[in-house]
Inverse folding.
């Protein structure tokens, strides 16, 4: 491997991790496992090695997909006369 390809996981590594050859299926599996920085590039799936290692070691925290409260919506209504 050259230094440029060490930045992202190879196609073989992604297939071994996910069990799929198709990039869209790989992305689906990775996102379910908390790899939220994986994305489809022009020709293949892209997953940074640093992000992969951080998630595997537990260093990366995954933001919960919970509904967010928009505070301006909670302003009290004006009372009617």
């Amino acid at each position: 491997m050259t230094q440029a390809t060490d930045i992202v996981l190879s196609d073989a590594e992604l297939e071994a991790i996910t069990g799929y050859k198709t990039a869209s299926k790989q992305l689906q599996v990775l996102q379910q496992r908390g790899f939220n920085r994986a994305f489809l590039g022009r020709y293949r799936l892209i997953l940074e090695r640093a992000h992969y290692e951080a998630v595997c070691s537990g260093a990366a925290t995954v933001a919960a997909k919970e509904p967010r409260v928009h505070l301006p919506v909670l302003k009290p209504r004006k009372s009617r006369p």
Q: What stands out?
A: The chain has one domain: 1-61. The chain has a mean pLDDT of 81. Residues 74 and 80 are 18 Å apart (CA to CA).
